[in-house]
């Protein structure tokens, strides 16, 4: 190899090393920024978002929702909208069908939660401690109530994943 090729190769190697250092530094900076942006609010923050609202309860009470999966989802969406909890009909329906096939009395008796004495229940298979933490005022305080179950689960998913729409498996 000629000295010119060696110099060119050394320059390329030096340039490559500098680019690698810049890339690693850039990735580390981007990773730190992403981690800072994805910090999850505490359950206390979720509860603040779910503060009681007479207007929400009144608005939901004035509407007639069918006593069916469609009606429960629509009522939950109205409450979620008023409380600032993100989610769509499609996201709720998709997760409900995966978790319970639309059965508000579904109960998981075999997973780790059930083995520990706290079975997942309802349309979105919520455990009692999660329901208690993420319950939304204006809904029944009963885990298997369809609207309360959907709304609490959506509140939890918003706190943990940004939205129920971002949940594509057991959560």
From TrEMBL:
The keyword Signal applies. InterPro entries: Lysozyme-like_dom_sf, MCP_transmembrane, Transglycosylase_SLT_dom_1. Residues 1-46 form the signal peptide. The keyword Oxidoreductase does not apply. Residues 96-166 form the Transglycosylase SLT domain. Keywords: Signal. This is Transglycosylase SLT domain-containing protein.
């Amino acid at each position: 190899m000629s000295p010119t090729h060696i110099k060119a190769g050394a320059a390329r190697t030096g340039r490559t090393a500098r680019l690698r250092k810049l890339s690693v530094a850039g990735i580390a900076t981007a990773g730190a920024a992403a981690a800072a942006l994805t910090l999850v609010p505490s359950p206390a923050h979720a509860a603040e978002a779910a503060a009681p609202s007479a207007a929400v309860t009144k608005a939901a009470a004035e509407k007639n929702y069918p006593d069916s999966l469609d009606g429960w989802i629509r009522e939950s969406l109205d409450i979620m909208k008023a409380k600032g909890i993100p989610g769509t009909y499609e996201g709720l329906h998709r997760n409900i069908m995966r978790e319970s096939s639309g059965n508000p009395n579904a109960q998981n008796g075999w997973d780790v939660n059930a083995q520990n004495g706290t079975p997942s229940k309802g349309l979105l298979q919520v455990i009692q401690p999660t329901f208690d933490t993420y319950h939304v005022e204006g809904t029944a305080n009963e885990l298997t109530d369809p609207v309360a179950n959907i709304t609490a689960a959506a509140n939890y998913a918003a706190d943990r994943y940004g939205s129920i729409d971002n949940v594509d498996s057991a959560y």
